[in-house]
Amino acid sequence: xxxxxxxxxxxxxxxxxxxxxxxxxxxxxxxxxxxxxxxxxxxxxxxxxxxxxxxxxxxxxxxxxxxxxxxxxxxxxxxxxxxxxxxxxxxxxxxxxxxxxxxxxxxxxxxxxxxxxxxxxxxxxxxxxxxxxxxxxxxxxxxxxxxxxxxxxxxxxxxxxxxxxxxxxxxxxxxxxxxxxxxxxxxxxxxxxxxxxxxxxxxxxxxxxxxxxxxxxxxxxxxxxxxxxxxxxxxxxxxxxxxxxxxxxxxxxxxxxxxxxxxxxxxxxxxxxxxxxxxxxxxxxxxxxxxxxxxxxxxxxxxx
Length: 304
Known about the structure:
The chain is an alpha/beta fold. It has helices at residues 12-20, 28-40, 54-65, 80-83, 89-101, 108-115, 125-131, 150-162, 193-198, 209-219, 225-238, 249-261, 269-274, 283-292, 294-302; strands spanning 44-47, 69-73, 85-87, 121-123, 139-143, 164-167, 171-174, 180-185, 200-203.
């Protein structure tokens, strides 16, 4: 790690406290992975099922460290230009026409230099993260990398190796302070080994019952504690049913809020049946839960 890094002496307790103060309650394994990523200045690759809090970790890191959150949402067909930089062709054309209209075109090479100046450069997330210079490392969130193509993954590996990008018309941009890089994947496909070797890695599990209760309590403190426990227990039970999309912590939070809107302080069959849409997003999953039996699931949750 470079001299003077704000994270060179950070402790595990500080990581846990810093994230916790911003609404994120990591387990020891994840907190340790974050600690290593900060001290070693290595990208952190988080894999796990949707809803386990991978994206939320980047938000909490940004809030804690004070670095700006720069998010690159990956999707099929994403290319280097969309992730790195583009030229504002509309403004370039307007500038050219204005120069022609006022008769200012006397030196073609000078005009071309103006057209490819900083004011016409659109910085996309990767270049934003590399060129930020306020002294505090930004948090670069590369979200759902598994949705992007293999070609983009290879390009990303090259950028992360040096944190340096060359814009032919302007020169080379090199990060004065490397960004904190969080890469997430829902593992719809395998991320290549070359990228994994560049990163630290952590598989993010759904939290255990007590930690999920604590997370929900931090987000919905007005909810009755007993109701929070019941909803968290029921959500955990749903994850064991082999659903098409098992609910994540975000759905647990939504479910507690939905039942709170109904002004209930305890689960019952009617309330669960009426609010399944807050936690289940596929018709097949709803049918599966009803087939198992809502009454039995609620009774089990009430007993915990």
